[in-house]
Amino acid sequence: MKPKTLTILSIIIFIALIILAIYVISLREYNEYSDEGVYVSKVIDGDTFEMSDDTIIRLLCVDAPERGENGYSEAKDFLSNMILDKEVRLEKDISDKDEYGRLLRYVYVNLSNIEIFVNQQVVQEDYAKIFRYGDDISKCDEIEGK
Domain containing 24: what range? Predict the structure, then answer.
């Protein structure tokens, strides 16, 4: 092979590797829990849960009743039935965490090969109400059904 051809081929391979690396990194940011083995281990209430790696997740645009409030048990049970012991896909909006250190995320779960938007289901089934806070509102209208 000629040195010029070898140089061009090396450059093309290098560029392809850079593009592949950028793609893989972007996938990782979009789906933080793409690794097998990380799953929902505990549901705290109707809008907060814990992953098996001890990360606590707060559903964006959702406000479910707190412990001691009317509807708390029903909201917690609904969310538990949907995501407990399952792997979920997490999607970030603007902010990473809230003031309590919980990850703020839109959450998706695969049920019978259909991806369910968990935040939307909790609100549409009346276990929680829509709650817009900060800049993390890009999907609030979708969740509300507008």
Answer: 1-30
